[in-house]
């Protein structure tokens, strides 16, 4: 097992410990979340950014990575409640099994656990510029902004991009920033890593929004074809409204069927437009990665995460 893979296993162990040893009153619910283990992409981002020239990774990066994964899990629990989702990663959501109030409180507990773990790093004095609570605020504000814009069919692209930057991209930015902050690289350019993480997150959300128009729930393992019904306006639809203003006027007068919306998005090329936007973020992030003064293995790892965001295998 490589040093990187060994540290990734440490992250999984830390997350597992938090979920399986939580207070008894909540343990049944947190243990349920262990059944839907994710891909640990954000943890990989932390560890990749943290990798030193000799391949070693400080254990503080493991703690930060576990903290960010737990925070991500908390946001998923809350998202599922707001979206009334039935499944997440192929298994029943927490609120469907145990109720909305229980799920919300469980998500709150996970946020607190995330902060507690991040506070246990050894070299706190080295990370004074890194603030997980600040990122948590931005994530919450992104979610709130999306909620407040539900049904706002006149949402502009720049406002949509600001929303998804908060709700999704900021956590990836936090991951890359946390990782590089723990590294011993004297040439580390924190701003570049933050931009790379931010753009990885933007790509993930843009293509996730495309998925709502392309995939089935069986293949996505989560609800699709649901954003419009819940009033969530995403870029494929924004582009369709920009292309066909009469469609915007129509939807504001009377509800449109999902079939009509899908047809309009397809006719306007909304999916391709969104994919092209994701590609622009990809090219910028790729340029930043290529200019970093790092070892080839680390560059390849960072590129692997970026490619994964574009669904490039």
Secondary-structure-derived class: mainly alpha
Shape: globular
CA radius of gyration: 20 Å
Mean pLDDT: 92
User: How are the strands of the biggest sheet laid out side by side?
Assistant: 1-2
* Quaternary class: single chain
Question: Any overview of this molecule?
Answer:
- By secondary structure, this protein is mainly alpha-helical.
- It has one domain (3-309): Farnesyl Diphosphate Synthase (Orthogonal Bundle), CATH 1.10.600.
- Helix content is 72%, strand content 1%.
- It is built from 15 helices and two strands.
- It has helices at 3-20, 24-33, 41-50, 59-83, 94-98, 100-118, 132-148, 157-182, 190-214, 217-220, 235-243, 245-253, 258-268, 270-291, 296-309; strands at 87-88, 91-92.
- Strands 1-2 form a two-stranded antiparallel sheet.
- Strand 1 (87-88) and strand 2 (91-92) form a beta hairpin.
- The mean pLDDT is 92.
């Amino acid at each position: 097992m490589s040093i990187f893979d060994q540290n990734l296993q440490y992250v999984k162990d830390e997350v597992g410990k938090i979920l399986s040893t939580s207070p008894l009153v909540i343990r049944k619910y947190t243990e349920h979340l262990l059944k839907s283990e994710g891909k640990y992409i954000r943890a990989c981002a932390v560890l990749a950014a943290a990798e030193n020239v000799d391949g070693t990774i400080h254990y503080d990066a493991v703690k930060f990575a576990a903290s960010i994964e737990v925070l991500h899990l908390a946001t998923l629990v809350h998202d599922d409640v707001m979206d009334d989702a039935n499944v997440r990663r192929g298994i029943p959501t927490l609120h469907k099994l145990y109720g909305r109030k229980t799920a919300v409180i469980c998500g709150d507990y996970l946020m607190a656990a995330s902060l507690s773990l991040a506070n246990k790093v050894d070299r706190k004095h080295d990370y004074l510029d890194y603030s997980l609570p600040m990122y948590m605020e931005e994530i919450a504000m992104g979610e709130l902004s999306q909620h407040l814009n539900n049904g706002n069919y006149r949402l502009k692209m720049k406002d949509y991009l600001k929303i998804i930057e908060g709700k999704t991209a900021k956590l990836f930015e936090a991951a890359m920033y946390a990782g590089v902050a723990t590294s011993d690289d004297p040439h580390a350019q924190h701003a570049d890593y933050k931009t790379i993480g931010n753009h990885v997150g933007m790509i993930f959300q843009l293509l996730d929004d495309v998925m709502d128009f392309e995939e089935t729930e069986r293949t996505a393992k989560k609800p699709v074809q649901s954003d419009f019904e819940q009033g969530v306006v995403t870029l494929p639809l924004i582009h369709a409204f920009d292309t066909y203003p009469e469609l915007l006027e129509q939807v504001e007068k009377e509800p449109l069927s999902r079939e009509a919306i899908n047809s309009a998005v397809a006719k306007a090329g909304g999916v391709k437009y969104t994919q092209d936007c994701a590609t622009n973020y990809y090219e910028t992030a790729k340029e930043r990665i290529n200019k970093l003064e790092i070892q080839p293995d680390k560059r390849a790892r960072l590129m692997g995460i970026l490619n994964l965001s574009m669904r490039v295998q």
